[in-house]
Structure to design on (334 residues):
């Protein structure tokens, strides 16, 4: 309940500041907020919101897994892209349903191994995890860009993109929604994370480490091993999200298409907002996806740039951090 009150306080404060900013631009705040809601959840905007929310929720959950133990994975983009390009490389070679399964597994394996390597850089070489995960993203993104410009480039196109996957390697589409069966894979990942977090010794170890690393060490928890395991799970899920995206429309890897929508960074915001709790992370991801999707309707209705929604997202996180610190200070004083 304390976390719920803190989040509600942060959302209210961000909304009030957003109203002030909108009024300063000459726009009506009520009209602006209404346009965001209608644009995100109206008949025309809901499919786009859900399509955007699936990869955001997947990345949010992926980044929440190590965050539960106080570990921040800033390499989600590299793991996402590497999983996507690996899925396409396998999907172009293996036909049918077996190709779908093999492509998904290739994405998971590529992301997991790459994230685990970043964890080993910290545990064995002393490179801080923030540095290793972030910097390793750049070689992964550059490698994918090279592959779709040269060896894997579609010869019939001038764009830096791979060939289109065969029709029998497409994820099944959900009728009239614009979504694919990847929705169920992401939801299954959220459920597995929730069960492991709440019902298993591994989840308890992660939470204890997040509460206090030194206490976890005294309790006998192997921090290096836990770091590698959590980062591998995080990277594997990020790679799965990349595979799910490319196995849906347009059924190919396009250079920059997975980075421009900022799935990773919005997912990280969602995980931070929810303090890495499974259900809270899912709801926060949906909230941020709706805010981003509704930004286009905001721009049309009020002529206010949709980048204001990004400002609101950042302000929301700042207010959340401030509210959390304020409540902790009051608790300590009491």
């Amino acid at each position: 309940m304390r976390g719920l009150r803190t989040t509600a306080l942060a959302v209210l404060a961000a909304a009030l500041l957003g109203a002030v900013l909108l009024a300063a631009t000459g726009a009506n705040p009520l009209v602006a907020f209404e346009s965001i809601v209608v644009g995100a959840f109206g008949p025309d905007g809901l499919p786009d919101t859900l399509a955007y929310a699936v990869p955001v929720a997947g990345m949010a959950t992926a980044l929440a897994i190590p965050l539960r133990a106080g570990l921040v994975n800033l390499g989600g983009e590299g793991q996402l892209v590497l999983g996507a390009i690996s899925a396409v490389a396998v999907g172009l070679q293996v036909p049918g349903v077996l190709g779908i399964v093999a492509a998904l597994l290739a994405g998971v394996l590529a992301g997991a191994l790459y994230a685990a390597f970043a964890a080993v850089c910290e545990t064995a070489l002393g490179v801080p995890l923030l540095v290793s995960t972030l910097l390793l993203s750049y070689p992964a993104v550059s490698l994918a860009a090279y592959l779709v410009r040269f060896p894997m480039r579609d010869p019939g196109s001038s764009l830096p993109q791979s060939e289109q996957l065969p029709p029998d390697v497409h994820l099944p589409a959900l009728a009239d929604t614009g979504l694919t069966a990847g929705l169920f894979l992401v939801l299954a990942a959220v459920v597995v994370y929730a069960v492991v977090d709440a019902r298993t010794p591994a989840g308890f170890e992660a939470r204890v480490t997040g509460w206090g690393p030194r206490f976890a060490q005294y309790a006998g928890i192997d921090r290096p091993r836990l770091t590698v395991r959590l980062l591998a799970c995080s990277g594997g899920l990020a790679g799965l999200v990349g595979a799910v995206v490319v196995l849906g429309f347009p059924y190919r890897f396009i250079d920059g298409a997975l980075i421009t929508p900022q799935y990773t960074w919005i997912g990280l915001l969602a995980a931070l907002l929810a303090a890495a709790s499974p259900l809270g992370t899912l709801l926060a991801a949906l909230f941020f996806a709706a805010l981003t999707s509704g930004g286009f309707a905001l721009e049309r209705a009020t002529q206010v740039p949709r980048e204001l929604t990004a400002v609101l997202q950042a302000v929301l996180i700042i207010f959340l951090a401030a509210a959390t610190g304020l409540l902790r200070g009051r608790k300590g004083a009491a």
The longest strand covers residues 173-174. Residues 326-334 have pLDDT under 50 and may be disordered. The radius of gyration is 21 Å. Residues 96-125 form the longest helix (30 residues).
